[in-house]
């Protein structure tokens, strides 16, 4: 009887497990096993246990070739692994939904989301939502900073120039006297100036005290009184930034009649300009007109100049 106990115990175990074999399939908890090993339970939650010494794992093989494993093999004893084996040098690890890979770890360690051939440490094919802070090189930056590219090196947090907050912005009125020749005198008055430290405006010129890329625009008008109608003015207007002159209008400009007074006629022309230029502070900017008349007879030549000039800092 002693010799029969192991056999009886085995029969008892198989009976409790409801072990069944069908066409080389083995079923535990089922009499119709569907796979080579089919384990089913309607009550047990803990179905299977793998217990071994340190470094235990269950291998995954295909046609006799070792592909990967599930276990506690690499890293700390408490870690759990699911991945390719050491001899599988080209295989990738996929997390799939409905048989389609959604997250891929390539053999070189690159991770792709929606991309099975990631070219970067993280290669995302699609949009991404970030609800928490973004940390770059151990820093999440400070309020108001933006992340800027540094070319081939890591990006960095950068404080926006105050120009982006429209803190360097101004507009000045242009007014001229009367002259019977070229270069009538100009005068500047402040319409508004949001940063008098960065920009100062006086009667003779505008001084930029902060370096950066500026957008400058405005208009300039000339009027003259004639005894016979002119066809056009021969004149030019330049934007002077320090010693540099920027032409901002053609030399020949058509005119329009304003009002008439007896045999005299008053005509005018308006010129608009737009310029973007990097300014190295401090520097003076001004409008330099020079005027002559191509036709018509000037009776009392009153060249009256007026207009506006405005600018704002685009970037430091």
Tell me what the structure shows.
With 316 residues, this protein is mainly beta. Among the domains are: 1-49, no CATH class; 165-315, Jelly Rolls (Sandwich), CATH 2.60.120. Helix content is 4%, strand content 50%. It has one helix and 24 strands. The chain has one helix at 5-17, and strands at residues 19-22, 25-28, 37-39, 57-62, 65-71, 81-84, 93-97, 100-105, 111-113, 122-124, 145-150, 153-159, 169-176, 186-193, 199-201, 206-208, 212-226, 232-241, 244-247, 252-254, 256-261, 264-279, 283-293, 304-315. The protein has a six-stranded antiparallel beta sheet with strand order 14-13-24-17-22-21, with no helix packed on it. A hairpin with a 2-residue loop joins β7 and β8 (100-105). The longest helix has 13 residues, at 5-17. The radius of gyration is 42 Å and the shape is rod-shaped. The termini are far apart. Mean pLDDT is 79; it is low at 1-16.
Secondary structure topology:
Elements: H1 5-17, E1 19-22, E2 25-28, E3 37-39, E4 57-62, E5 65-71, E6 81-84, E7 93-97, E8 100-105, E9 111-113, E10 122-124, E11 145-150, E12 153-159, E13 169-176, E14 186-193, E15 199-201, E16 206-208, E17 212-226, E18 232-241, E19 244-247, E20 252-254, E21 256-261, E22 264-279, E23 283-293, E24 304-315
Parallel strand pairs: 2-3, 9-10
Antiparallel strand pairs: 1-2, 4-5, 5-6, 7-8, 8-9, 11-12, 13-14, 13-24, 15-16, 16-23, 17-22, 17-24, 18-19, 18-20, 18-23, 21-22
